[in-house]
Write a structure and sequence with these properties.
The chain has 10 helices and 10 strands. The protein is α/β, with parallel strands linked by helices. The protein starts with a helix and ends in a 6-residue tail after the last helix.
Length: about 260
């Protein structure tokens, strides 16, 4: 009888442990570029409820985030501010499947109401009359994209020399305008949609021939503990519901929505 009781107790404990593991929340880690944090936060909260999981989001400059994911060998998804990071690092093997969710595009950004009447002309970025700060290409996608935009125009070196200094990411750039420490920045257009920004800053939209759209693509990380669940999140972000959220925050327009399913990368 004692032997039978011991086996039964072991079985009960095994069943209890199995049930506990089954009910334990899966914890995922996402690396998200600062500019995209708003829509991803909204999507993450909805996804957590539906799939009984928890999502931790690390935000920062796209380059810094990739280095963190690479060094730690932890995390499930990576969303940089430009497709260039996927193209640059795909051969390293840390980035697997990808999913397109929208576009980033650069814009001049000034104080709300444009008090200095700054024109929609890229040459203002080297005008001595204005206080200017640019993004640092070595830390964030906005600096990297700024260099790529200005180099073909022959303006990058001059702009760097005339800038007061370089800012690490899009959030810090916006804060400089809000604090009235600079007159012009080049930043991602979508940052002007943020609730805390839209009453204090405004975009000066540049020609699409100059400020070309940058594709935003979620990347499944090789280190993912839950690749199936991570892929489900990517699919959700690219679904009709996900598109509406990215649209709300300025990463898609009406034309983009119409052509969404035709986008390749």
């Amino acid at each position: 009888m004692r032997k039978f009781f011991g086996i039964s107790l072991s079985l009960i404990l095994l069943i209890l442990n199995t049930n506990l593991l089954a009910n334990e929340k899966k914890e995922m880690l996402f690396y998200i570029g600062i500019t995209m944090i708003k829509p991803v936060n909204v999507l993450a909260k909805k996804f957590e409820k539906k799939h009984n999981c928890s999502i931790k989001i690390l935000q920062g400059g796209s380059q810094d985030l990739y280095e963190s994911a690479k060094m730690s060998k932890e995390g499930d998804l990576y969303l940089p501010g430009s497709l260039s990071y996927r193209k640059k690092y795909l051969k390293e093997g840390n980035l697997l499947d990808g999913k397109f969710v929208g576009y980033n595009k650069l814009s001049l950004v000034v104080k709300k109401g444009n008090p200095k009447n700054i024109p929609a002309n890229i040459s203002t970025i080297v005008d001595d009359r204005y206080r200017i700060v640019l993004g640092n290409e070595e830390s964030g996608s906005v600096g990297n994209a700024t260099k790529k935009m200005l180099m073909p125009l022959g303006m990058y070196e001059e702009a760097i020399m005339k800038a007061l200094y370089l800012s690490p990411d899009s959030r810090n750039l916006t804060k400089l305008i809000k604090d009235d420490k600079v007159d012009i920045i080049i930043n991602w257009y979508a940052t002007t949609f943020w609730e805390e920004n839209k009453g204090l800053v405004e975009p000066i939209v540049l020609s699409s021939k100059i400020a070309k759209k940058k594709k935003l693509v979620f990347n499944l990380l090789k280190s993912s503990k839950y690749p199936k669940l991570a892929k489900q999140f990517m699919d959700y972000a690219a679904s009709k519901e996900g598109r509406k959220i990215f649209y709300k925050y300025g990463f898609l327009d009406d034309k983009d929505l119409k052509n969404f399913d035709k986008v390749t990368f």
